[in-house]
């Protein structure tokens, strides 16, 4: 069974995943993180966008949201052959659908039911493995007295070089990418409390959740904390591998 997880700090070559457990474990973050997916139809040069909104393992189906622009809904009804591509935490995830698409509803919302793929392309592009903390409810506080910032958020993932937070409300016009904030305080489970400055790399507001996702790069991290973080991320990586396999 191929291992989709990186074993070092260098970028990984693309892998073809064929085991059902690996495929499902790779698809779930696309759903839970509301990752935009790019769809390409062979007879059309335009790119379309949709979201994975449900994984039904009982019937072996994925539910895709309505396609943007909406003429993509017509293409998917006429020709079920298309390619799907998404990017999540430095990983390119791609596959091709060759099975008929069923039109249906999910919670009274129109959707497209698509077969769970037989294989996925998994390409780890980021050199540092980013460990997901979904479901662990790890609180984090971003503060900077000079900028009058004091925000409580939830840690979504972490690597040796940065992390992602989820914060309530729309903060895109308030927080500026490229700014270094003086203090991010994280009390990580089964580890210890860490406190360090961070540089904001991006903001992404999801109106459906009324949450802003903040991507940070650790700033001026010392050697001791770097080693501690490496051990913690490796621990999370091993736990993830055990749960998947």
TrEMBL record:
One Pfam family cited in the UniProt record for this chain: PilZ
Top-rank lineage group of the source organism: Bacteria
Coiled coil regions in record: none
Residue intervals passing through the bilayer: none
Residue ranges of every copy of the PilZ domain listed in the record: 124-235
Keyword Zinc-finger: no
Keyword tags: Bacterial flagellum, c-di-GMP, Cell projection, Cilium, Flagellum, Nucleotide-binding
InterPro entries listed in its UniProt record: PilZ_domain (IPR009875), Split_barrel_FMN-bd (IPR012349), T3SS_YcgR_PilZN (IPR009926)
Domain (Type III secretion system flagellar brake protein YcgR PilZN): residue spans on this chain: 17-121
Gene Ontology MF annotations: cyclic-di-GMP binding
Protein's UniProt name: C-di-GMP-binding flagellar brake protein YcgR
């Amino acid at each position: 069974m191929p291992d989709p997880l990186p074993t070092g700090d260098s970028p990984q070559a693309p892998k073809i995943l064929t085991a059902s457990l690996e495929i499902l474990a790779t698809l779930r973050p696309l759903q839970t993180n509301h990752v935009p997916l790019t769809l390409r139809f062979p007879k059309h040069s335009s790119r379309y966008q949709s979201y994975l909104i449900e994984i039904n393992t009982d019937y072996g189906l994925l539910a895709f949201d309505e396609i943007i622009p909406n003429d993509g809904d017509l293409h998917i009804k006429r020709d079920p052959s298309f390619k799907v591509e998404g990017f999540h935490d430095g990983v390119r995830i791609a596959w091709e659908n060759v099975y008929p698409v069923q039109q249906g509803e999910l919670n009274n919302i129109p959707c497209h039911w698509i077969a769970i793929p037989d294989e996925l392309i998994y390409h780890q592009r980021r050199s540092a493995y980013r460990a997901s903390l979904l479901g662990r409810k790890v609180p984090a506080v971003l503060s900077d007295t000079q900028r009058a910032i004091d925000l409580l958020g939830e840690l979504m993932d972490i690597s040796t070089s940065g992390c992602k937070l989820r914060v309530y409300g729309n903060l895109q016009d308030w927080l500026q990418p490229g700014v270094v904030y003086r203090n991010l305080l994280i009390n990580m489970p089964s580890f210890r409390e860490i406190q360090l400055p961070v540089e904001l790399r991006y903001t992404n507001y999801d109106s459906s959740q009324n949450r802003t996702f903040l991507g940070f790069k650790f700033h001026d991290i010392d050697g001791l904390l770097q080693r501690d973080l490496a051990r913690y991320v490796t621990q999370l990586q091993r736990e993830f591998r055990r749960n998947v396999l």
